[in-house]
Amino acid sequence: MSRSAMTTTIRRRLAGEIGRIDKQAPFRVALSYPSPYRAGMSSLGFLQIYKTIQAEPGMACERAFLPDDEGQGADGPPITYEGLRPISDFPVIALSVAYELELAGVVRLLELAGIPALREERSFRDPFVLAGGPLTFSNPLPLAVFADAIIMGEADTLAVEALRVLRDAPSREAALDALAALPHVFVPARHGAEMPPVAQCDNALLPAWSPIRAEETELSNMFLIEAERGCSRGCTYCVMRRSTNGGMRIVPKERLLELIPEDARRVGLVGAAVSDHPKIVEVVRTLAERGCEVGLSSLRPDRLTDEFVGALRLAGYKTLTTAMDGTSERVRETLERRARPRHLQRAAELARQHGMNRLKLYLMVGVPGETDADVDECVSFVTELSRIVPVALGIAPFCPKRNTPLHGARFAGIDVVNKRLDRLRRGLRGRADVRATSARWAWVEAVLAAGGEAEGHAVLQAVHAGGSFRDYERAFEKIKRPEPPRRQSLPLLAAG
Question: How much is the pTM?
Answer without folding.
Answer: 0.94
